[in-house]
Amino acid sequence: MRIVALAGGIGGARFLRGLKDVVGPDDEITVIGNTGDDIHLFGLKVCPDLDTVMYTLGGGIHEEQGWGRAGETFAVKEELVAYGVGPSWFGLGDKDFATHIVRTQMLGAGYPLSAVTEALCDRWQPGVRLLPMSDDRVETHVRITEEGRTRAVHFQEYWVKLHAAVDAEAIIPVGADTAKPAPGVLEAIAAADVILFPPSNPVVSIGTVLAVPGIREAVVAAAAPVVGLSPIVGGAPVRGMADKVLAAVGVEASAAAVARHYGAELLDGWLVDEVDADAVESVAAAGIACRAVPLLMTDPAATAAMARTALELAEQVRR
Ligand code: FO1
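# FO1 complex -> structure
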């Protein structure tokens, strides 16, 4: 079976680990990773979501944190701070720096991001084919107003520096409108037997992947059933700032509203948590098959069960 998953960072990566636990040796997983969170710092290109998937599936992730490397040290960051060179609010560790140096060096030599990602994955062996959504630069910016001053900040500044404490007024995936899907992305979607939307952020993760011209259209046209898992449980995001960015696009932070936001054009099936069982009827009324099951990735077994249920729902809704 060929499975395609669109993924953001921590939630997507953890779900994919559960998915790997339930598929067979002949099944192939292709991950189309969000690159809208990418940021250029200290002359280096940092790809947080691609790295989170790569480290999580490759066994190098800082488990509790969910991003960055296990056993990390911060000597380079401290030296930069000593030179007064910022930003100091973004936690790049020494081991992680090496990844960004290799990536930036290869990009500078002319390799596209997709080839660089493949080369990095040669080391980590994540057990999935990890494709960036695009080789072109896309950067998610967030419009905010502070003390009467409106400005757009990089998504990482909104999330890591400002802790999403200010309302997001608009989400701007800069460059997405002219970006092209990376090699293999459209082919993987067209050839998929199942397409999954993990419990990633529907706006700044999966929404950004779908904003690359051609990707949404390919998912809509795909023969494969498309099943998503709600990142909203009991009216709040399991982690992250999905409530803030959903508000910016006029969508309520509820499992049912996120399903309707994707819509029946994209989704054939949707999983909500048991606490949101009352959403099942309204999601079904929108033309999307819906089941209420435990959706908290509390341990590997619970995560694997979620992945198994998503694949079962895909079989039930197969057209
Ligand atoms: N998240 C934080 O909350 N604080 C950080 O300092 C931070 C640094 C960081 C460095 C590399 C990386 O790959 C991820 C990092 N993240 C950090 C996570 C990241 O901000 C987001 O969680 C994702 O971009 C959203 O998926």
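# post-check
The domain at 2-135+178-316 is CATH 3.40.50.10680 (Rossmann fold).
The first helix runs from residue 10 to 22.
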